[in-house]
Specification:
156 residues, alpha+beta, Aminopeptidase, globular
Length: 156
Amino acid sequence: MIIREAVLGDEGAIMHLIHELAIYEKAPEEVFATAEDIRHSLFQEHPVAFCHVVEVDGQVVGIALWFLNYSTWLGKPGLYLEDLFVLEDHRGHGYGMALLKKLAAIAVDRGYDRFQWWVLDWNQPSIDLYKRMGAEPMDEWTTFRLSGDALRKFAQ
């Protein structure tokens, strides 16, 4: 197993894993991103997101796609994990945990005081794992989202 930063040329594999994650989360019809979108987001001069991959025998089998957020209360950036996914036939080898530890180390090394992510309410195995790691659920917060037509209408 090798954990490394994604490089130009990985966007197809990353996109494949994003589709597999959407299938796992029972929402494949909600993925509109393309490999070109991923390439632009990750590999432009000023990337808006970052990705680490797990590579086994030359194949990308897992991803951790993340970006920076900011805490006004701490006055510091934090690391927000958007997607963590390992192909089903490669689970159980610690690859997901290795990706999480890599991102935690990045956060610590760079002075980010928070490492955050969302998990679906029905994903109990992941919830249990995160609690064992010492992560705390933020149950008192409700997530809101404006997107699509609602976003465009509100922006007018």
